[in-house]
Design goal:
By secondary structure, the chain is mainly beta. It has one helix and eleven strands. Strands 1, 2, 5, 8, 10 and 11 form a six-stranded antiparallel beta sheet that branches. Strands 3, 4, 6, 7 and 9 form a five-stranded antiparallel beta sheet that branches. The N and C termini lie far apart (43 Å).
Length: 146
Amino acid sequence: MKHGISTLFNLKKIKEWYRGRGVKHIDKNEEDYIDWGLGIEVPFFSSSKFTVENNAIAIIGSQITHDRSWPIKYSIVKISKLGTSIKYFESVIFYGDQFEGEFHHKFHLPNGSGYQLLVFNYFQYHSIGRLRLIQTNEQKENEPIL
Protein backbone atom coordinates (compact mmCIF):
# COMPACT_ATOMS: atom_id res chain seq x y z
CA MET A 1 0.00 0.00 0.00
CA LYS A 2 2.80 2.41 0.92
CA HIS A 3 4.54 1.85 -2.45
CA GLY A 4 1.25 2.51 -4.28
CA ILE A 5 0.78 5.84 -2.50
CA SER A 6 4.34 6.95 -3.23
CA THR A 7 3.91 5.92 -6.89
CA LEU A 8 0.74 8.00 -7.17
CA PHE A 9 2.51 10.93 -5.50
CA ASN A 10 5.43 10.69 -7.97
CA LEU A 11 3.05 10.51 -10.95
CA LYS A 12 1.31 13.63 -9.65
CA LYS A 13 4.67 15.42 -9.35
CA ILE A 14 5.60 14.39 -12.90
CA LYS A 15 2.30 15.71 -14.27
CA GLU A 16 2.61 19.00 -12.35
CA TRP A 17 6.22 19.51 -13.42
CA TYR A 18 5.48 18.67 -17.06
CA ARG A 19 2.21 20.67 -17.26
CA GLY A 20 2.54 23.57 -19.65
CA ARG A 21 5.53 22.05 -21.46
CA GLY A 22 3.43 20.45 -24.21
CA VAL A 23 3.82 16.86 -25.32
CA LYS A 24 7.11 17.16 -27.15
CA HIS A 25 9.53 14.37 -26.31
CA ILE A 26 12.64 16.55 -26.64
CA ASP A 27 12.66 20.32 -26.84
CA LYS A 28 15.26 23.04 -26.51
CA ASN A 29 13.47 25.99 -24.98
CA GLU A 30 14.14 29.71 -24.89
CA GLU A 31 16.18 29.50 -21.67
CA ASP A 32 18.81 27.21 -23.25
CA TYR A 33 17.38 24.25 -21.34
CA ILE A 34 16.94 20.90 -23.05
CA ASP A 35 13.78 19.01 -22.00
CA TRP A 36 13.93 15.21 -22.21
CA GLY A 37 11.56 12.34 -21.41
CA LEU A 38 12.42 8.64 -21.25
CA GLY A 39 10.59 5.37 -20.71
CA ILE A 40 10.90 1.63 -21.24
CA GLU A 41 10.67 1.89 -25.04
CA VAL A 42 12.95 4.94 -25.30
CA PRO A 43 15.60 4.65 -22.57
CA PHE A 44 18.19 6.96 -24.22
CA PHE A 45 18.36 10.64 -25.12
CA SER A 46 21.36 12.14 -26.91
CA SER A 47 21.99 15.84 -27.32
CA SER A 48 23.21 17.48 -30.47
CA LYS A 49 26.99 17.56 -30.92
CA PHE A 50 29.04 20.20 -29.12
CA THR A 51 32.65 21.30 -28.69
CA VAL A 52 34.58 21.29 -25.42
CA GLU A 53 36.89 24.21 -24.73
CA ASN A 54 39.00 24.81 -21.61
CA ASN A 55 38.89 21.05 -20.84
CA ALA A 56 35.55 21.17 -19.02
CA ILE A 57 31.78 21.45 -19.35
CA ALA A 58 29.07 21.34 -16.72
CA ILE A 59 25.50 20.10 -16.62
CA ILE A 60 22.88 21.87 -14.56
CA GLY A 61 19.40 20.40 -14.40
CA SER A 62 16.56 18.59 -12.71
CA GLN A 63 14.84 15.24 -13.09
CA ILE A 64 11.76 13.37 -11.90
CA THR A 65 11.57 9.58 -11.87
CA HIS A 66 8.67 7.20 -11.34
CA ASP A 67 10.44 5.71 -8.30
CA ARG A 68 12.75 7.65 -5.97
CA SER A 69 15.42 4.96 -6.05
CA TRP A 70 15.79 4.82 -9.85
CA PRO A 71 19.02 6.14 -11.38
CA ILE A 72 19.48 8.42 -14.36
CA LYS A 73 22.95 8.30 -15.93
CA TYR A 74 24.43 11.33 -17.71
CA SER A 75 27.44 10.51 -19.90
CA ILE A 76 29.68 12.47 -22.22
CA VAL A 77 30.23 10.38 -25.33
CA LYS A 78 31.29 10.40 -28.94
CA ILE A 79 29.07 8.32 -31.22
CA SER A 80 30.45 7.00 -34.51
CA LYS A 81 29.05 8.48 -37.72
CA LEU A 82 26.97 5.37 -38.40
CA GLY A 83 25.89 5.09 -34.76
CA THR A 84 27.52 1.67 -34.43
CA SER A 85 29.87 2.49 -31.57
CA ILE A 86 29.92 4.77 -28.53
CA LYS A 87 33.06 5.98 -26.79
CA TYR A 88 32.38 6.99 -23.16
CA PHE A 89 34.49 9.74 -21.59
CA GLU A 90 32.89 10.46 -18.22
CA SER A 91 29.57 9.71 -16.48
CA VAL A 92 27.59 10.72 -13.40
CA ILE A 93 24.47 9.16 -11.89
CA PHE A 94 21.70 10.98 -10.02
CA TYR A 95 19.06 8.94 -8.18
CA GLY A 96 15.36 9.69 -8.00
CA ASP A 97 13.78 13.11 -7.98
CA GLN A 98 16.07 16.11 -8.32
CA PHE A 99 13.60 18.92 -8.91
CA GLU A 100 13.44 21.12 -5.80
CA GLY A 101 16.91 22.43 -6.61
CA GLU A 102 19.05 21.88 -9.65
CA PHE A 103 21.85 19.32 -9.68
CA HIS A 104 25.29 20.36 -10.92
CA HIS A 105 28.18 18.31 -12.26
CA LYS A 106 31.40 19.34 -13.99
CA PHE A 107 32.96 16.98 -16.54
CA HIS A 108 36.72 17.19 -17.18
CA LEU A 109 37.39 16.33 -20.83
CA PRO A 110 39.96 16.82 -23.58
CA ASN A 111 39.27 19.83 -25.80
CA GLY A 112 37.63 18.88 -29.06
CA SER A 113 34.45 18.59 -31.07
CA GLY A 114 31.86 15.89 -31.69
CA TYR A 115 30.89 15.32 -28.05
CA GLN A 116 27.30 14.50 -27.08
CA LEU A 117 25.48 14.16 -23.77
CA LEU A 118 23.79 10.76 -23.43
CA VAL A 119 21.00 10.41 -20.83
CA PHE A 120 20.01 6.84 -19.86
CA ASN A 121 17.25 5.63 -17.51
CA TYR A 122 18.19 1.91 -17.29
CA PHE A 123 14.98 0.81 -19.09
CA GLN A 124 12.82 2.03 -16.19
CA TYR A 125 9.32 3.48 -16.36
CA HIS A 126 8.72 7.27 -16.66
CA SER A 127 11.49 9.77 -16.17
CA ILE A 128 11.62 13.37 -17.34
CA GLY A 129 14.04 16.20 -16.91
CA ARG A 130 15.59 19.34 -18.17
CA LEU A 131 19.19 20.47 -18.25
CA ARG A 132 21.68 22.92 -19.62
CA LEU A 133 25.20 22.25 -20.85
CA ILE A 134 27.56 25.03 -19.78
CA GLN A 135 31.06 25.75 -21.06
CA THR A 136 33.16 26.40 -17.95
CA ASN A 137 36.26 28.49 -17.51
CA GLU A 138 37.79 30.17 -14.47
CA GLN A 139 38.54 33.41 -16.36
CA LYS A 140 35.13 34.11 -17.92
CA GLU A 141 31.41 33.71 -17.25
CA ASN A 142 29.71 30.37 -17.86
CA GLU A 143 28.07 30.16 -21.27
CA PRO A 144 25.43 27.74 -22.58
CA ILE A 145 26.97 25.59 -25.32
CA LEU A 146 23.88 24.21 -27.04
